[in-house]
Amino acid sequence: MHMTEAEVLQTYQKYVVPSYRRTNLCLVKGNGAWVTDTRGKRYLDFFPGWAVSGIGHCHPRVVKAIAEQAKKSIHFSNNFLHPLQAQLAEKLIRLSFPGKIFFANSGAEANEAAIKLARLAGRPNGRYQIISFTGSFHGRTLATLTMTGQHKVQKGFSPLPSGFRKAKFNDLESVKKVLGPKTAAIVIEPIQGEGGVNPARPGFLKDLRRLCTQHKILLIFDEIQTGMGRTGKLFAFQHYQVTPDAMTLAKTLGGGVPIGAIIIAEKYADLFSPGTHASTFGGGPLVCAAALAVLEAIEKEKLLENAVSMGAYLQERLRKISPLVKEVRGAGLMIGCELKVPAAAITEEAQKNGLLVNCTQYNVLRVMPPLTLTREQADLGLSILKKCLN
Ligand SMILES: Cc1ncc(COP(=O)(O)O)c(C=O)c1O
Question: Given this model, what pLDDT does residue 230 score?
Fold first, then answer.
């Protein structure tokens, strides 16, 4: 059934919970760095699916993997084995750090597993508290929004679960102030995404590693946004020479289909014993086939190298694009362009001009194009942004 844009909007208004701030743009197709609306107008997408379509919309390898797998099996429960989950687990462990993996369906769910892991590890010593950071974002479930360091996501949902403490991002002294005998883990995004693209200082992560080792507590990296090549390395921790005890992934990992995962270092990898954690959909054949295709694309198409070179190119040009730019920060193709003016008006104007880009924290343009970005696409996006900023 064909619906006009207006009909789609009316139907949403009548039947879909209004929990999102949506634009009226109605999309029907995605291809690489491009999306198309119902009227056939194309937009260059510098924020594909909130980083879910991190290697571009409908990447041919992912499409092929899903289509072929759908003919064989879409889902089996975790009471049975299937080769694709085994292959994906083996590959992700080989590419990150020695340990084991648990598959879920979203970032928040992966972080829920991280919280449960910290509590299991801390339990024998009476440790259960988790320290996270101001400006962080970890999800929208009750526990993960409590772990999130932004009041706006917590407002209206009290009483919040107990056992969460906050420290100031990049400030070791503030961590030491809240760290105590009940602390079980420290959870951090190596580069805060939703918080405004704020990189952790390398020294800060090294200090956290030292502190966690010293107190025998877990250091957990939320790499849901930074992972899977976004920063120019497969995982952001690889920039810092700091290995966490656990790392959560989601978004780009599935190439567009829902997946979440937690990689747990060997020392803690057997804490989840049968019956302690589960997820009905987690790690089914279809999503594993898609994730294997994403990893293959990153490797075979040299997407990490592309993220490094196109990231440097974009960052350098964004710095000079307009006097309204205050600061450009990030790594690879995870770029925050802080403006001296509100960024929402710029993203609206960009959309009118055929470019989709995100605004976060009031005045930060979050520029996260697909890792497949070409020089021509980068130049086109830059020229639209320049027009909007000037
Ligand atoms: C760093 C980080 N952690 C967790 C999440 C939550 O992921 P999901 O929306 O898949 O639950 C997000 C989503 O934006 C994120 O950026």
Answer: 98
260, containing H or E segment: strand 260-265
What is the reported pLDDT for 24?
A: 87
pLDDT at residue number 355: 98
User: Cβ(250) to ligand 1 under 6 A?
Assistant: yes
The pTM (predicted TM-score) of the whole model is 0.98
The position carrying tokens 């084995």 is 81
What gap in Å lies between CA 246 and CA 101, rounded to an integer? 9
Our answer on whether the CB atom of 244 is closer than 6 Å to any ligand 1 atom is: no
- 46, 37 Cβ separation under 8 angstroms: no
Please enumerate in sequence order all residues whose Cβ is within 8 A of that of 362, keeping only pairs 6 or more positions apart, or say none. 342, 343, 344
Ligand 1 atom, smallest distance to 226 CA: 1
282-304 residue pLDDT tens: 999 999 999 999 999 999 999 99
Tens of pLDDT, residue by residue over 344-364, are 999 999 999 999 999 999 999
Return the structure tokens found at 45. Answer: 């997408």
Instruction: Report the C-alpha dihedral over residues 230, 235, 241, 245, rounded to 10 degrees.
Output: 140
Q: Where are the alpha helices (DSSP H) in the chain?
A: 5-15, 60-72, 83-95, 107-122, 142-147, 172-178, 202-215, 237-240, 285-300, 303-319, 344-352, 375-389
* 336: enclosing H helix or E strand: strand 334-339
Domains of the chain, first to last: 82-300 (3.40.640.10)
C-beta 108 within 6 A of ligand 1: yes
What digits encode the pLDDT tens for the residues 47-76? 999 999 999 999 999 999 999 999 999 999
| 140 CA closest ligand 1 atom index | 11
What's the pLDDT tens digit per position in 77-115? 999 999 999 999 999 999 999 999 999 999 999 999 999
Q: Is-contact 283 78, C-beta < 8 A?
A: yes
17 has a pLDDT exceeding 90: yes
Cβ(174)–Cβ(184) under 8 Å?
no
Q: CA 136 to CA 192: how far, in whole Å? A: 6
Q: What is the 281 CA–ligand 1 centroid distance (Å)?
A: 18
pLDDT at 1: 75
CB 189 less than 6 A from any atom of ligand 1: yes
